[in-house]
Design a protein that fits this description.
The complex is a heterotetramer, with two copies of chain A (337 residues) and two copies of chain B (624 residues).
Chain A (H helix, E strand, L loop, with lengths): L26 H16 L6 E5 L14 E4 L5 H11 L4 E7 H5 L3 H10 L4 E6 L34 H7 L4 E6 L3 H13 L4 E6 L11 H4 L4 H4 E3 L7 E2 L5 E6 L4 E6 L18 H8 L8 E8 L5 H8 L9 H6 L4 E3 L1
Parallel strand pairs in A: 1-2, 1-3, 3-4, 4-6, 5-6, 7-11
Antiparallel strand pairs in A: 5-11, 8-9, 9-10
Helix pairs in contact in A: 1-6, 2-4
Chain B lengths: L15 E2 L2 E9 L4 H14 L3 E7 L14 E9 L10 E6 L2 H7 L3 E10 L5 H7 L15 E5 L1 H9 L6 H5 L2 H12 L5 H10 L4 H20 L9 E2 L8 E7 H16 L4 E5 L6 H8 L6 E5 L3 H13 L3 E6 L1 H17 L3 E7 L16 H6 L9 E3 L5 H16 L2 E7 H5 L1 E5 L45 E3 L14 H16 L19 E6 L3 H13 L4 E6 L1 E3 L5 H6 L3 E6 L4 H10 L4 E4 L8 H13 L1
Parallel strand pairs in B: 1-8, 2-5, 5-6, 6-7, 10-11, 10-12, 12-13, 13-15, 14-15, 18-19, 18-21, 21-22
Antiparallel strand pairs in B: 2-4, 3-4, 9-16, 14-20
Helix pairs in contact in B: 1-6, 1-7, 2-3, 4-8, 6-8, 7-8, 9-10, 9-14, 11-12, 17-20
Classes of the chains: A alpha/beta (337), B alpha/beta (624).
The structure holds thiamine diphosphate (2 copies), iron/sulfur cluster (2 copies) and magnesium ion (2 copies).
One thiamine diphosphate (TPP) sits at the interface of chains C and B.
Chain lengths: 337, 624, 337, 624
């Protein structure tokens, strides 16, 4: 865990001396900026912070940080981060991963990291494509995606990262966007504050192989109408003047969009966001984009015991004995004179 | 007299003196053959014999009672001389039911003693074992000296006072058989009686019953007034170095060796990432109980996560260890390449089993040597060592930790299913004698970069997260020799490739020169072995040496790199043969390294070598 | 897909000549019996049926069937079954797996099989333990489980197979028990009838290493009180005389147990099961056993396009050309005389 | 006159006759260097020269414009003789910006022609490339014959009629440069003009502009009335066998070879399970477009699923194929063991790249031979073959399918990053000449069991689900030789192990005997190669042969098993050297197999061998 240091830090202090080599216009730049800013505002200690990644464009991230960093192998960052955290629970561990890295080859490790609730921050850059290998479709690509490996359109139903995380037993699930700096830093701070595995999905634009795949809800012009920014304890309202909201039909148990106020329903009929409610969270991550907005923010947060914390307790104090004499003598021995 | 009438021992018979004896206790999974064997082992050790044991568990978890695939057995060989294997053929077999007889009788030597519980030879059990008629009556056991006793009956008699349920009473049969066997070989019952009271402490009636059965079996031997005979045997004490002893399995000594290595390195944590697999899982089980010795065991979701977590732990400054068997090691190979690339210390243990693929999980084999040495993409050299005996696993584990931490490299340690389960007496080392090799984490920011190398060892600096001023990035992309940053430079890749190779190659100068385990330093046939074949080869060679043959035993612990003098040593012999439980993997390595006409004596049956098999193989070559 | 044959089949016809070698009393025996019965009642054709498994006690299953069978490697059955189904979509493919096989080492393949919606039947024998390797805890073992690898108790939060399946995008999720033959066969038939990946979790008792781990709701005596047998379109009632039911608190959006009739709530306040409602399904798979019964039956069924079906369409007719001339001449060629 | 004043070509210069020429087009990723190179290639092929090309893409997906790591290049070597590599050093370099110059100029031979676009040598671009001052002015290019042209200016002039945006207009620079280059080497523009109109068909103004630029560049060469000179060259036609030709990359011919193999086997489906990875992905991309040829491509969630799906497809009666590069192949090894155990046909393709671990993904290497041959747990033999040239990938793929289906075994096919991207002219085979090897599925229930073996090939029966009466179970546990059921019998395991080994070993009798590619059948130095080193070794050896040296080139396609005559063949030479892009992996295999003192000439830089490097290595040995 991080020990915040008194003096003020500047985002630049968290940038490494390495030249950043993403494509011009890649959403990764904005995220990098946001992470630098977040760490500076949190004032985390460089030597206590480790960024771990697999392979992919997103996974280049650690090279651009001035903290400790480990660019590992494809899909295995969660497992390696687990070892790091269990070997030294005082470290502040971040995992940076792409949709292919964490949900295709790495899906199993992501599942088990979340279920074990290892106290790390897992940030998934979802661009719905394999960037580094030049544009094949990914497990989050929509059905029918044409790509070098699916010239006639992909046939798979995509996986929803947040639905997957909830199913895996994640206790913190949030969403944000590459280019909305304030929202992004706020979400990252919440993730960092959460004890346990914090899962954050970021919609990230790959300008080269999947440009604009999220624009229908990220474009400045449509954002207010198409994004539902959730806040714990606040009603689920959206729209430029917050005149629409979500309501649950008690008969069908399904959500519906309702107009609020003037000719619409009474404000108190609108659902209030409860980030500790898994059922609500699973509805919010699943909203059908054809009729609903896209929910962003902290969708679920309900802390429980962490694996690393419990291990610490089990090892109480972690006193380390070197008394091999005693060890080797366990059980029956005899002496030959 | 509750004994089959055909049996009429004489009152007194001279004990027959034997140099070594092989006994196997066999029965149903539920008959307690493993504890019976262990107790006989303890009494034998206390009697001062050298010994070796090997259990044979059924392949199935818990097969139906009375079936052949539910038979469990425990074999022990003990003697007045050096005993290094559990023996080729049985001098005595104790079979508590027809299935146990069926499965094991072929291993009994002609003239061997066969103790059967006729009470268990019911038609039902005979059918389950696939016997048309009872072999005890149909004369098919003519080659053996059969002791047909109705153990069921005599046991029930012996324990009747305790008024146990029939089921519980019958569970004492093994103690009756043990009592008689202990008497036949003139062993004490003291340790066993102690064990019984510890084991059944909560239930006095069971303590009494088991003790009664044990004593009854013993008394039967002494007092039996019958025609026919029960031969007794006397085995002299083995000349053993004074000291404190215990019996140990390869699994135990391996686990303890890792802990000893952790202590010798001065590291505070041994992080053991593993995923269960036969026959490797027991190492995880032993270490899981050693939290107080700085051990953190992590049962990962699969073998890949297991090694990756260990790599992560090593990156964070712990001693990273991962363990599996062939199929699981196969899954670790990509991550192993990362450990080679980022040059982190890591111990990878392979308890080999019969393959390919799932193969025969409970059977032993040595066929993962190729995988250990060559089984990675690209040029990814790493040290490979192997343990020779159960006790040797301790020292080999310490050596693995030493090489990994001193040279910042993953090290492959090979054992196998035989070593994992076999046991032998072990003279406890004086802990003070265990060499220390304290690890120094790098902490000086001055001129630091992550691939700064020690000029002597070529090991890179180990700088762990948490150290101020040494923040750095490592990864699997090729790194610049001078800065550690990503580099695609052709000359740098050549330089790094050469450095990785040189680092491992020059370990040869830091390991003991190869000794000859038996026989002359040159001339005649060199029998070269590695791993668990040590016992069979050593005894086989010694037999031939005793017969005056020109033969030597050379046993390798270090397989990559080879000891510096190995080439010269081998060139001194007329002929070189490698007995291996594979199709000739070490032989291939020796041939390519030294261009010598090394021959393979291959056995791939899932069974360890017999002493005689090795001896015959050598003899055949001596005669040519 | 299976072509039912007219003549009546007997369960015995689906048993192989191999001796069954599970421990006496293992729940696997009852499941084997149920599968034989189910196939007989469906009258499936032996040669069109393939049982695929990984490694584990459960995975020995194919050897005891007289159909085609492939006992593969640990955790990979879903991937191998995918290849089988795509190579020959006419085959009726069953996957038999244990909790370790399918959720530990095989978690990633299970995820992708379900999300791709390959038309196979996935039957998970959940005994919350690693049987074949002699009793280590598994990803479904409850926190604190002591086992050879966790002598002081396990530290991981278990994964819920059905919650995981829903998060992975499964379109058919059901639960049953090893020893309730009628319910089990009925569920297996529903799974078989479903087009797409059918995920079935079976509570299976490992008498040797985890005996009685489910007895608190499987024991005859308590079953009616502790099991909620769901039926599409029927109210969610349980108890010997169906006098308790589930209701949704519209404020908190959480389920609660209510007494029905006499001094209880009106029957129409009790939730009616809608197997096409994912939100309801995720609540049912998640019921906290300390206050709720265990939901069994078809919890979710909402068919959609299958990968194999879509592939068939994409390959329209699957006409196979052998015109290599044309292939090699694609693009620019020139002649040297 | 839009030309730098220092440039004053004479009116007429005699074309210089050359045997072969090496040209590299280099510019920013956005400058269209790959199409420029491809068009020059087409015109060159049509001019009747033999040729070889190699593209050099930037490591980054799309680096910022003007940076050194964003430089993209295309190299072609063409000549009147046999051309097997893209060449050691450049005779001419076209550099469209300072970064392109910086990265590539060292490969230009002294006296080589250097065409630079001075218009792109702005201070900003110079800084980005890390030049303090412009090399064009500071005399640092003294060794070369510099043609400094303001391509930017002349191109804008040439296309001004079309009124394109500045951005689009500048995109025509490559065509201007191409036009001039075509003129210098006396090639036609016809094919290029056709291509332009196809390519930009939708936008006439672009067709006009690109054509205009092309013609302007060409005209400039012809009409330039200036001091100084632009040397032109004449390269005679290469003697080529008549026939229909095309250029082909290893990726294309490999994919087509698999389809041809599928057809030759009579199987209806080629199931290709793969997970993207550099440099293997393009094979997936090519096959994904061949659904109508019975290809089903499956992009799996990882490499393990990819091979497992292919195994499943093979079990169901399809031709199972999986493809990856080193790290991905490492992940497949456990499943590969299953394919060996259940004896199903499977083709596993490894497009090798520089390692260990992630290494240098875009760079070529041959370092996965050990992994291919030895990289599995237990004794798991399988055939290993390798392709030598881009076109050879076609035949090698067919051979892989033949061996897999005829012997019911997984086959490893090795290519590498060089072969994947390199291109050469290919005389299209007469499809009728492709050998057929129709697969017979087993369908007779009489006496059937799944491990029924063909007495000749030892291949087991392939009985696919859907066949009535042949329902059976297979798996990774050891199987009984006689029944196919699970067996733990020791003798059976030995028998099955021997059968697996024998099946692969006797393939040696079903492959061509090893030919000598160049030089005598014996005597002198044998230069033994495998894989993509073919071109460099062959030309190197031929050079020395021309100089009268006693040297021969032997190139292996079959690595496991070796051709039956290989041992005798090698023994006929005084010295054997193996140039390899690894630390000596084939050499190790030859040494252990034949006990011959095989030497390694190792290069591990991520770069292919140069002809001169091979020649020098041989010369060094000839001189000793
Ligand atoms: C074992 C292995 N398999 C495959 C690859 C090739 N590979 C590298 S990154 C990648 C996927 C990248 O996609 P994603 O994770 O979404 O990251 P992005 O590039 O989109 O940020 C693949 C398939 C690899 N490096 N290693
Ligand atoms: C690659 C690999 N890793 C590990 C194993 C060992 N192994 C076999 S089955 C199994 C787990 C069995 O548990 P489960 O899947 O729940 O099946 P069960 O025996 O409980 O029915 C393990 C770890 C193996 N066979 N292969
Ligand atoms: S390929 Fe896409 S994700 Fe990768 S760096 Fe370029 S824009 Fe970003
Ligand atoms: S170990 Fe458990 S699961 Fe396996 S067969 Fe025995 S009882 Fe069944
Ligand atoms: Mg991506
Ligand atoms: Mg289980």
């Amino acid at each position: 865990m991080t020990v915040a240091t008194p003096e003020k830090r500047s985002p630049k202090e968290y940038a490494s001396d390495q030249e950043v080599r993403w494509c011009p216009g890649c959403g990764d730049y904005a995220i990098l900026k946001a992470v630098h800013k977040t760490l500076a505002e949190l004032g985390v200690r460089h030597e206590q912070t480790v960024f771990v990644s697999g392979i992919g464009c997103a996974a280049r991230f650690p090279y651009y940080m001035s903290t400790y960093g480990f660019h590992t192998i494809h899909g295995r960052a969660p497992a390696i981060a687990t070892g790091i955290k269990l070997a030294n629970p005082d470290l502040d561990v971040w995992i940076i991963s792409g949709d292919g890295d964490s949900l295709s080859i790495g899906g199993n490790h992501t599942l088990h990291l979340l279920r074990r609730n290892i106290d790390v921050n897992f940030v998934l850059f979802n661009n719905e494509i394999y960037g580094l290998t030049k544009g094949q479709y990914s497990p989050t690509s929509r059905r029918g995606t044409t790509s070098p490996s699916t010239p006639r359109g992909s046939l798979d139903n995509p996986v929803s990262p947040c639905a997957f995380a909830l199913g895996a037993g994640a206790r913190f699930v949030a969403r944000s966007l590459d280019t909305t700096l304030p929202h992004l830093t706020q979400v990252l701070k919440r993730a960092h504050a959460h004890r346990g595995a914090s899962f954050v999905e970021l919609f990230q634009n790959c300008v080269v192989f999947n440009d604009g795949v999220f624009s229908d809800f990220t474009e400045r012009s449509v954002a207010p109408e198409r994004q539902l920014q959730v806040e714990h304890g606040e009603p689920l309202l959206f729209g430029a003047n917050k005149d629409r909201g979500l309501r649950l039909d008690p008969q069908t148990l399904r959500l519906e969009v309702v107009a609020v106020g003037e000719g619409g329903v009474r404000p108190n009929e609108v659902l209030v966001h409860d980030e500790t409610n898994r059922a609500l969270a699973s509805m919010l991550v699943d909203l059908d984009q054809s009729e609903f907005p896209v929910a962003v923010g902290v969708l679920y947060c309900d802390p429980t015991a962490t694996y690393d914390g419990s291990l610490r307790e089990q090892r109480d104090g972690g006193e380390v004995s070197n008394d091999l004499e005693a060890l080797l003598r366990r059980g029956r021995t005899w002496t030959v004179l | 007299m509750s004994v089959d009438s055909r049996l009429r021992p004489r009152t007194t018979i001279e004990p027959e003196v034997r140099e070594s004896v092989v006994i196997r206790f066999a029965g149903d999974s539920g008959d307690g053959m493993q504890v019976t064997g262990s107790q006989f082992t303890v009494e034998t050790a206390l009697a001062g014999n050298d010994l070796a044991t090997f259990p044979d568990f059924p392949a199935e978890i818990r097969a139906p009672a009375g079936t052949t695939f539910g038979v469990s057995a425990f074999q022990i060989r003990f003697g007045s001389g050096e005993v290094l294997t559990a023996g080729d053929e049985l001098d005595m077999l104790i079979a508590l039911n027809p299935a146990a007889l069926k499965v094991n009788v072929d291993d009994l030597r002609p003239g061997g003693v066969l103790l059967v519980d006729t009470g268990a030879f019911t038609q039902r059990n005979l059918n389950k074992a696939g016997y048309a008629s009872s072999p005890v009556d149909d004369g098919s056991l003519g080659d053996y000296r059969v002791l047909p006793l109705d153990l069921t009956k005599v046991t029930l008699e012996a324990v009747k006072e305790q008024g146990l349920s029939q089921k519980e009473a019958l569970r004492c049969r093994n103690m009756w058989a043990l009592g008689l066997t202990l008497w036949m070989y003139a062993r004490s019952r003291k340790a066993t009686i102690e064990w019984i009271s510890r084991r059944f402490g909560q239930r006095p009636e069971l303590v009494a019953a088991n003790t009664a059965a044990l004593n009854a079996g013993h008394a039967f031997g002494e007092t039996a007034e019958l025609e026919g005979d029960i031969q007794t045997y006397s085995i002299g004490e083995a000349p053993t170095t004074p000291g404190l002893y215990r019996t140990v399995t390869g699994t135990e000594s391996l686990a303890w060796g890792l802990v000893a290595g952790r202590a010798a390195s001065g590291l505070r944590q041994l992080f053991f990432g593993s995923y269960p697999i036969t026959p490797a899982s027991p190492v995880l089980h032993v270490l899981a109980n050693l939290q107080d010795y700085g051990v953190v065991t992590f049962q990962a979701e699969d073998e890949i996560a297991a090694i990756c977590a260990a790599i992560g732990a090593a990156y964070a400054g712990a001693l990273g260890v991962t363990s599996s068997s062939g199929p699981g090691i196969a899954l670790k190979t990509e991550a192993l390449g990362l450990a080679v690339a980022v040059e982190l210390p890591l111990v990878v243990i392979n308890s080999q089993r019969a393959g390919p693929s799932t193969g025969m999980p409970t059977k032993t084999e040595q066929s993962d040597l190729y995988q250990a040495v060559y089984g990675r993409n690209a040029d990814s050299p790493l040290p490979v060592i192997a343990a020779a005996t159960p006790a040797d696993c301790f020292d080999t584990a310490i050596e693995a930790v030493r090489l990994a931490t001193k040279y910042m490299t993953p090290v492959m340690l090979l054992t196998d299913g035989y070593l994992a389960n076999a046991a032998e007496p072990w003279r406890l080392p004086d802990v003070a004698d265990i060499p220390e090799f304290p690890v120094q984490f790098h902490d000086d920011p001055e001129g630091f970069h992550p691939f700064l190398r020690d000029p002597d060892t070529l090991a890179r600096a180990w700088a762990v997260p948490g150290t101020p001023g040494l923040e750095h990035r490592v990864g699997g992309l090729e790194r610049d020799y001078e800065t550690g940053h990503i580099s695609y430079d052709p000359a740098n890749h050549q330089r790094m490739t050469d450095a990785r190779a040189a680092k491992v190659a020059q370990i040869a100068s830091d390991i003991p020169i190869q000794q000859v385990a038996a026989g002359n330093e040159s001339g005649g046939v060199a029998v070269v072995g590695w791993g668990s074949t040590y016992g069979a080869i050593h005894e086989g060679v010694k037999r031939l040496l005793a017969a005056g043959a020109a033969v030597s035993h050379i046993h390798l612990r270090h397989l990559v790199p080879f000891p510096p003098n190995l080439g010269d040593l081998l060139r001194g012999f007329d002929r070189i043969v490698v007995p291996e439980m594979n199709t000739g993997q070490l032989a291939t390595m020796l041939r390519s390294t030294f261009l010598l006409p090394v021959e393979t004596h291959s056995k791939v049956t899932g069974q360890p070598f017999k002493i005689a098999e090795v001896a015959d193989a050598i003899r055949a070559r001596l005669e040519q």
